[in-house]
Amino acid sequence: MYEKFYGLREQAFNLTPDPAFLFLNKRSKDALDTILYGIQRREGFALIVGDVGTGKTTLCWALLDRLGKRDIRTALVQNPLLSEINILKAIIQDLGVRPPNASKDGPLDVFDTSWMRGMDKRQLIDLLNIFLAQRAEENVFTVLIIDEAQNLSPALLEQLRLLSNLETAKKKLLQIIFVGQLELDKKLRLPELRQLNQRISVRFENKTLSMQDTENYIRHRLAMAGGSRTLRFAAGAFKSIWHYSKGYPRLINLICDRALLAGYKERSMVINKRLVRMAVNSLEGREEAGFSLSSGWLKRIVPFLVPVILLLALIPATVRLDWAR
């Protein structure tokens, strides 16, 4: 709605995990570089954890984007609430494994999994092993990313550990990156998952943004969306957005989107603290009123208003008494 008014080519604060909009501060950039280095060195497992709304899925897509080269094949599983059989099928499907005896040159319907019907776990692992070995002969390495991995059962996590044992005499065939919420790290420390936990060579926790990083994050997304130079956020707006969002990127996006909508309605090229407050009220289901008890200035003057109101309320009674006399 407001994109044309602000000269934006696209939505700057969309909630979809677009890797083009990935914002990296120094800490997360160093972590991403370490993960990429670990993949190039084929070093065991990697782990990315973080609270809800800290941008883990966007980081997943950024990894896929950077790994999209000829010598690396990737697969992303976004629904780990699957059985041991079905998660193997999901991996095989996303890697584009062809059915046995299928033509190498013929078209492949990646959505058709009927040919795997009736296969047991051993057959599916053998099929995957053959595929990975063929890719290794072509000097193609395979990376599997499991998103929302905190939902994996210990049994499934152990099965994925065993998949990492697929290898030739000289090289590993598969690297796995787990991405999930903070409880995933706790789950991996269970005694029955000790072997898997010991194989994780890279660990990174996605944290909320500082106030300065929040400002840089907003500027980055506006620049990526091609915003007009006349559009700007006031210093107080940045501080308010950080205060309300606590530095969570998902909340920052929501607040900024509503603040731009409020600014568009007022035809304002400056997003100020008041517009941010209106955005937050909108998200919380409260319309911005002229006199809102949530307003800081009103809270400060209420103690002084109460005696005045009481005094005014007593005036009619005093007048009536005087009149009666």
What do these coordinates show?
- This protein has two domains: 3-15 and 209-283, Helicase, Ruva Protein, domain 3; 26-206, P-loop containing nucleotide triphosphate hydrolases (Rossmann fold), CATH 3.40.50.300.
- The chain is 50% helix and 11% strand.
- The protein has 13 helices and seven strands.
- The chain has helices spanning 3-6, 26-40, 56-67, 84-95, 121-137, 154-163, 183-188, 194-198, 211-224, 235-245, 249-265, 273-283, 296-324, and strands at 45-50, 72-77, 141-146, 174-180, 200-206, 232-233, 270-271.
- The strands form two sheets. Strands 2-3-4-1-5 form a five-stranded parallel beta sheet, with helices on both faces.
- Strand 3 (141-146), helix 6 (154-163) and strand 4 (174-180) form a beta-alpha-beta unit.
- Helix 4 packs parallel to helix 5 (121-137), helix 10 packs parallel to helix 12 (273-283) and helix 11 (249-265) crosses helix 12.
- The longest helix is centred in the C-terminal third of the chain and has 29 residues, at 296-324.
- It is elongated.
- Mean pLDDT is 85; it is low at 289-299.
Strand content: 5-15%
CATH class of the largest domain: Alpha Beta
Tell me how many strands there are.
7
Tell me the Rg in angstroms: 28 Å
Classify the helix fraction into a percent range: 40-55%
The count of helical stretches stands at: 13
Residue windows where pLDDT falls under 50 for at least 5 positions: 289-299
First-last Cα distance = 67 Å
Structural class: alpha/beta
| Shape category | elongated
| Tally of distinct domains | 2
H/E topology pattern = HHEHEHHEHEHHEHEHHEHH
So, CATH architecture of the largest domain? 3-Layer(aba) Sandwich
Q: Please, what is the CATH homologous superfamily of the largest domain? A: P-loop containing nucleotide triphosphate hydrolases
- Which strand order do you get reading across the main beta sheet? 2-3-4-1-5
* Average predicted confidence as pLDDT: 85
**Major sheet details:** 5 strands, parallel
Named CATH topology of the largest domain = Rossmann fold
